[in-house]
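Review box. Two proteins, two foldings.
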Amino acid sequence: MPEDELSRSSHSNPGKSLANGIKTNPASSSPKSNLSVPMGPPVYVDLAYIPNHCSGKNTDPEFFKRVRASYYVVSGNDAANGEPSRAVLDALLEGKSQWGENVQVTLIPTHDTEVTREWYQQTHEKQQELNIMVLASSSTVVMQDESFPACKIEF
C-alpha cells in the first residue's frame, strides 16, 4: 500500500491499527481478550501437571480437551487462594466427557484437601462413568526432618 493510502487509512479509522496485517483496536486489547486459538489435534501425554497449583486462573475445560493425559497431578493446598479449584476439577470432568474414547485417567492429588474430598464424594458417579480414578495414598516418605505423602506411578 502506498504511503499516502496508509496514512489516509489510519486517519479514517482512528484507534485502529494494523498488526501483522490484522486490524486491531488498542482500546479493546487486554490480556484476557477474546482471541481465538486455532483448534488442533489433542496432545496425548502420560503425565500432566495441572498448571498453577490447580488454580482456576489458567485451567478450564479446554485444557482437558486438548491435553489428554493418563495421569493428572493436582498439587494445590492453599484454600485461601482457591487452590485446588473446584472449577478446575469440574473442568476435568467436562473436558474428559468430550474425548469420545473411554481411556482410563488417574487423578493424583498431592494433598488431602477439603475441596478434593468434597469433589470426589459429590462427583464419584460421574468419575466412574468417565473412567476417572482418584489415587489416594496412605504411603509416607520421611526425609531428614520432614515427612510427606507419596504415590508410586509405573508406566
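Next protein.
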Amino acid sequence: MDGSPALLLLLALGLGEYGHGVQGYKMTVKFRDSSITHPRVGQRLELECQAANEDSGIFWVRMDRGRTLHFIVFISSMARTTFEGKERTSRRFEATKDSRFYRLVVKSFTPQDEGNYFCLMNSNQVLYFSPGQPAFLPVIVTTTPAPTTQGGTTEEDPSPKTPDPDTSKKKEPDFFCDIFIWVPLAGACVLLLLALAVTVVLCQRTRSRRCRCKR
C-alpha cells in the first residue's frame, strides 16, 4: 500500500481534529517509557500504538504546533514499512511491529520533531485514529535579575555623558538663521527712524517759513 497519498486523501475527507476514536476500533498511543513527560534534545524517543484485533496496518502521523499534518511511516500488517518518499528506511525514524503493537522510534529528538503523535488505521474505506500523544521539549523560563541598589539609592552611570553631536549640529543652523533674520530687521528699523527724524525736521522748517510769510 502506498501510505502517503492514501493518507492525505483520507485525512482530507475524514479528519477534522486529532484525538477521536471509534467504538470497536479503539487505539491508544503512549511513550514506551512511562516516566517520560517531555523528551530532551538528542534523546531516543520510543512511541507505541496498540491497534485493534483485526487491522490492515497503521500510519504514524505528527501534527505540529501549526496543526499541519506530517506523514511519517506506514507499517503494514506484515511489518513492512514505507516512509515518506516511498522509502523503506529513514534517517530520523525506525518503525517495527510486534503482534498488535506498532512502534515508532525517533532516533534523535530535535525541535523539528515536536508535535502530537498519533496512529491511524484504514479499514473498509473508513479512517480510524487514536488520541494524540504530545511530544514537546520542556519550556525553559528565563528571568531577568532586578538592578541592585545600596542604601536605597540607585547606582548612577559613572561614564560621563557626551553631548549628542546631532543636537549641536541642529543648534548651529538655528544661530545662523537668527542672524539672517534679526540683522535685516534691525537695519530696517534704523532706516525708519532716520526717515522719521528727517520728516520731522523738514516739517518744522516748512512751518517756520509759513509763519514768516504771514507776518
